[in-house]
User: What shape does this take?
Amino acid sequence: MTAHAISIHAHFYQPPREDPLTGKIPTEGGAVPFTNWNERIHSECYRPNAELGNFERISFNIGPTLHNWMEGYDPETCRKIVEQDQVNVQRFGVGNAVAQAYNHTILPLSSYQDKVTQVYWGIADFTHRFGRRPQGMWLPETAVDIDTLSVLSTQGIQFTILAPWQADGGDIDPTEPYIVSLPDRQQITVFFYQRELSTLVSFDASATINADIFAEYILQPYYNQQKSGRGEAQLLLIASDGELYGHHKSQRERFLKRLLDGASDRLDLMPTYPAAWLKGHPARRSVEIRENTSWSCHHGVMRWMGQCGCTSGDGNWKAQLRYALVHLANELDRLYMDATRPLVADPWTLRDRYVHVLLGEISLDRLLSESAGPTLTSDQAHRLHLLLEAQRERQRMFTSCGWFFEDFDRIEPRNNVAYAAQAVRLTRLATGVDLEPVTASNLSRVASFRTGFHADTVFQAHLRKAEGVRSVKVGYAD
Ligand SMILES: [Zn+2]
Assistant: This one.
């Protein structure tokens, strides 16, 4: 068996673009000749990579909200992707796809209960689409803390992938996985990606023009020479956004194909993926992680909560937006608990299991009768349904993309505010309690430094628009 292994992890994900009232993506002018960016990126990246068989050779995750969109838009490509994972399951007993926490939420900034829900929903979505339980999970922005890792471990996840600077002390050998010890005698395995190679692949287009040159002259020197001398097996893992391969950089889907099916053979490099690697090479060494760190902010997780050097501007809007939405989330949870506790034994389990309704695996009636018994009136059932939908929007309003860029006046933060408005509306319908005034007041402090555009304007415009819509949309079911 070859001593040098290579794994390319691709994180496939797009921010949710759907209008919460219609469930549809509005036309996006910049995406011409396509109607919206999802369609364009699909045509440039997801479909060609599936057609080339690349999903069989890489390690990858697909964000659940993106995967759901793709299933509706191009089920044939989804089928190819799942089949390519299955080829590995048949051959090696473990697949190469990994799950992702559901809404691309920065989990260290989430409540404990939200961590549990995001991981549960992510596992359920993966299991539904891939027909098997996941062994690994990609953390959005690789943002990590001990609680998050404990939730992963508790829910049966065996490994995740982090940036090397997320190891405490930073003195790790990225050619092997590590064990992170967790409270209550739990543990999880962490693969650290190779920093320089991942940076080159992501940001230096000249590095990925020719896969044979890349493999021989750029990749190979990064193997640990001492290990090579001893003939010891080692793995280089490169992690990047999946959209790089064909969308951000054209033709790079062909680079990927050649790298893992040709260039690597020539140099006796073995393409692999974390679950397969662990079968023969379980982690031997331990490491502690630096909590509240991530892969795309070098200031911890500040990028998603305030000012840091990653984006220009004063970042005050980010702090205010997070404050407003955390405040709203607390109020929504209080009303959810007040309304559900008299009816169901465990409101949080009900919220977790609601994903099975969203996935069409069980009916809402069945979920509610399992949770509350057969005595619910139709009015009570209707109100529970509205509250569960409010919780779905409440999860979605924390999508990390809302804080990623420099300014508020963009589709991603505006969408988060629209999802917040929808949660307020549904909760008002269910309970009669109106969270609009306090939320609008908090959101009035969120403003674009470029255009002066305010978040409460988006919020209230969405609520007024919603008043004209009579039906209440239910998850993916319609
Ligand atoms: Zn930063």
